[in-house]
Amino acid sequence: MIEVKNIIKSFDGSKILKNISTTFEKGKTNLIIGQSGSGKTVLLKCLLGLHQPDSGEIIYDGISNTNMNESDKTLLRREMGMVFQGSALFDSMSVLENVMFPLNMLTNKNEEEIREKAKLVIERVELNNAINKLPSEISGGMQKRVAIARAIVMNPKYLFCDEPNSGLDPKTAIVIDKLIHEITKEYNITTIINSHDMNSVIEIGEKIIFLLSGEKNWEGTNTEILKTNVKSVKNFVYSSELLKKVKKYL
Amino acid sequence: MLYIDDIGRYFLMIKMSFFKPSKWKVQRKLIFKEINDLIIESIPIVAILSFFIGGVVAIQTALNLSSPFLSKSLIGFATRQSVILEFAPTFMSIIMAGKVGSYITSSIGTMRVTEQIDALEVMGINPLNYLVFPKIIALLFYPFVITVAMFVAIFGGFVAMTFAGVPSEAFISGIQMDFDPFHVSYAYLKTILFAFILATVPSYHGFYMKGGALEVGKASTLSFVWTSIIIIIVNFIITQLLLS
Q1: Distance (Å, rounded) from C-alpha B178 to C-alpha A102?
Q2: For residues B60 and B75, what is the distance between their CA atoms, to the nearest angstrom?
Q3: What's the start-to-end Cα distance of chain A, in Å?
Q4: Which of A105, A106, A111, A112 to substitute to test the interface with B, most B CBs within 10 Å?
Q5: pLDDT tens digit sequence for B220-234
Q6: Mutate to test the interface with B, among A82, A93, A143 (most CBs of B within 10 A)
Q7: Residues sharing a CB contact under 8 Å with residue A97, sequence separation 6 or more, in sequence order
């Protein structure tokens, strides 16, 4: 579980995150949603430790970030997995090598153990037939699967995903969403997804935080968001014609 | 002010590239890969350029030593001196700033644009140690490239003079004339400094670049310009200190 308490973050004098407090629960897919520029990515980077908040506290399973030195932060990062928007796979490495990479770098396991563990995770994301291919030789959806495999290969406590559906067709996007959701349950991890995709919200949003201009405007579940009366959230949720039509049946 | 900021960040980058080292097993692979990419793969182009430039240096020297009172062996002497003192260490390094420097900047810059460097940071890996340190170590072998350049350039001069009808004995005795080993030490000292500049300045431009694919190209150009300028300035300072 990650607790966020009164986080403020500014860049060049302009406040991007304004006093955000919330809780991201373990074993659930937590979604941070909001329009572009609402502060989603900055909040995610604060949670990852890539940005230091100006004030406030982030508590990772009872351990506050304010008491951490550099080596504590490094150890914490090793408990985090991250799926980047563009997958961020290493171009010169095959699928297998990409998944083996964190194990090679951060563990003392021997080559055979590392290979076996990586193969198991690749099997979990159903990519056995692409194991020796380079990232440039596989589709965007497959690249996302490799990124997920690389993120979970170290058995992280926390999984972060930045726009995991970006650039994918709707069908593949749902497959990726479901995969993340299943992995969250299987590994019992705290998953935080940064998204503005309403499909993801409805499919897997067990806890949703809606950001508006750097402030937490609303939080709830995927069933609650469809019935909310908060105007800004309604405008966001029902921005597409399809969902406007769906709303009539709710 | 902006340049002072850049200079400070450049030295911090160098310091950070020696911290939180990756596992030796991984580091060794990276170093061998960089030796192949930066050193071994540079040898063919260095050899071709050196051969022809050595020939041109010899021909131009011969053109200016047309007096019958001057010994033909001076052509070999002048070619050797030009190649060892200046052409091989300095001008070859500027050419390498284009080849190796652009490669380093574009490869690290592309990793920055595609979030691969962020991925390393999130994993708790020091990206500077992972990316820059192996390049610094690989370029410790750069004097080998310059040695190849020296030998091939002098050989190029010899071949050019053979075709021009200069007796080979005269050219060879010129190469051996008044040989001062300190000139070779001076050339290698410069080479080691240039190697460090070639590894770190392009890495800095790639690592701290901002933007997208277009900016990777711009960063590579900027890296070449700055690497060349720094090499020329360092060359002047070293020459002033050791030879004046």
Answers
A1: 58
A2: 9
A3: 32
A4: A105
A5: 999 999 999 999 999
A6: A82
A7: A90
Residue from B204, B186, B187, B198 nearest B230 by CA: B198
Domain ranges of chain A: 2-79+158-248, 88-155
What token pair was written down for A50?
Answer: 């890539």
Q: Residue B114 and residue A78: Cβ atoms within 8 Å? A: no
A vs B, Cβ pairs < 8 A, gives 47
Mark which residues 26-85 of B lie under 8 Å from A by CB. 26
Please tell me which of the candidates B20, B22, B119 has its beta carbon nearest to residue A88: B119
Question: CATH 2.50.20.20: does it fit domain A2-79+158-248?
Answer: no
Contact criterion met (CB < 8 Å) for B122 and A80: yes
Tens-binned pLDDT, residue by residue, of chain A (250 aa):
899 999 999 988 889 999 999 999 999 999 999 888 888 989 998 998 888 899 999 999 988 888 888 788 888 888 899 999 888 999 989 999 999 999 999 888 888 999 999 999 999 888 888 999 999 999 988 999 999 999 999 989 999 999 888 888 888 888 888 889 988 998 899 999 998 888 888 888 889 999 999 999 999 988 888 888 888 888 888 776 666 676 666 6
Residues of chain B in contact with residue A71, where contact means CB-CB under 8 angstroms, are none
The token duo for B12 is 């911090």
| Phi, psi angles (nearest 5°) of residue A15 | -75, 120
Rounded Cα gap, residues A5 and A22, in angstroms: 7
ipTM computed for the complex:
0.84
Q: Using CA atoms in the order B147, B153, B156, B157, what is the torsion angle rounded to 10 degrees?
A: -130
Write out chain A residues lying below 8 Å of B216, CB-based: none
